[in-house]
């Protein structure tokens, strides 16, 4: 199936970046969030990113304008999904909210529209079975920030059709990304492995072994990691991180995935990382 027009649901940390990558590859994109200011904030971040690229002479002003011209921001769900070939969902990491949204989409979208979820840790199977089109349902797991990270996990469940899989693998390539295909299982490939590493760093802080800055610095200096576990958690969003490790813990039943206390306490305090300007570290208002 050919993809021409895409709707991205959620203009947050991931959604706005996904919309930008799709528009950069030439696709028409509707970017939908629940309130005007959230849509505007997402589009503002895309504008800022593109302005930086123009400044660094990575693209011309005309190219940047054309990319922005292909993105339409909106809050009306029916309008956002009208006549789209693919919906990429990047809303809150809550399985019940996601299932409700997909049920609604099932009603509003064309029968052949593909649904893709960017969930980090929820079950693709469970979401697919909440719709009447499980064969057209797939996971499309991007990495943060989507504009820079080249990998995408494409996740199939038992009833995903071969055509849907092939369409999505092809799309990833057209977006300049490298797809890794796997079956629906907690954490898919990358997060399942990384989760253990993140948690052990946070456990060391809880045990008073070392401070976040020292743990991050040691790893970066020793093994040339680009970021340490605390920097990465802050970038991802601590609420998203807590939801993700909690799901692994519940479903894989292994101690390595037990949420560290410092992560739970940060989320309770509303200190969610870069997006709230405070997490394990403090940030300037524009994320600097
Ligand atoms: N943050 C990451 O590093 C990361 C990486 C990979 C995958 N993910 C996944 O991507 C999804 C989004 O994560 P995020 O970090 O962008 O979250 P976020 O909180 O930054 O953004 C979510 C956005 O979705 C909006 N939203 C909520 N309900 C909506 C609805 N019904 N329709 C449209 N928009 C709605 C919210 O208003 C918010 O702006 C989650 O499933 C998360 O697990 C996150």
Category from helices, strands and their pairing: alpha/beta
Got a strand count? 8
Number of helices: 12
Radius of gyration: 19 Å
- Domains (count): 2
CATH structural architecture of the largest domain:
3-Layer(aba) Sandwich
Oligomer: single chain
Small ligands present: nicotinamide-adenine-dinucleotide
The shape, in one word, is: globular
* Strand residue percentage: 5-15%
For the sheet with most strands, the description reads:
8 strands, mixed
Distance between the termini: 41 Å
Please list the strands of the largest sheet in the order they lie side by side.
3-2-1-4-5-6-7-8
Q: In which range does the helix fraction lie?
A: 40-55%
Going by CATH, the homologous superfamily of the largest domain would be NAD(P)-binding Rossmann-like Domain
Low-confidence stretches: none
- CATH topology name of the largest domain, in short, is Rossmann fold
CATH class descriptor of the largest domain: Alpha Beta
